[in-house]
Amino acid sequence: MTLAAAMCASCAQNSGKKTEETTIDTTKTTETKIETMEMKKSETPEFDIVTTHGTMRIRLYDKTPLHRDNFVKLVSEKYYDGIRFHRVIEGFMIQTGDPYSRDTALINKWGTGGPEHTVPAEFVEEYHHKKGALAAARKGDLANPKKASSGSQFYIVHDPENCTHLDGQYSIFGEVVSGLEIIDKIATVDTDRYDRPYEDIIINTIKPVVELAPKVEEIEKADSTKTE
Fold it and tell me: I need a surface site. Which of 49, 70, 79, 217 has the fewest CB within 10 A?
């Protein structure tokens, strides 16, 4: 280390101008790298759902903005961290999003929890219950004739053949774009008679990969607050 330092000092004394120019070029390179590392933004944001059984990458749809924005907000608040997949039915779907599922003492309430708000139904004809489709859970029609979605609970389709009757009944707002094998892994675990897995399947965290692009009005508001 001492020898290397002496050599650097000697070079600096003999060619100060060249050293200065090199420093400037390095700074520019660093700035370019920082710009490259900035997270992408899109109307169809993507997230990694990191679970104890593997990671699934999901993409949210732009034609269901109420569900998309609600999910983005919950993720930003770390709402889903530590929540279990509390309902698993092989050949049908896997369900999560209930904060009660963090606590085994509340096991009899699993499936009933969530924020106080609901999300208005958003049915888009082109969205179907294909494998990996992300859809919002909700209360039944008698208690919920407008089919409003749960504020946080959602399910992921395992076998689309057994879910076609759900089209137009439950709001589909995204899909798994990689990690479909994780759905299979979760869907095939042993469960009790209430479809609750015997082993813990937990969402460790949900990480943004492609962030939601800001709305036009948000950009205009930000610009109006800038000072010259």
Answer: 217
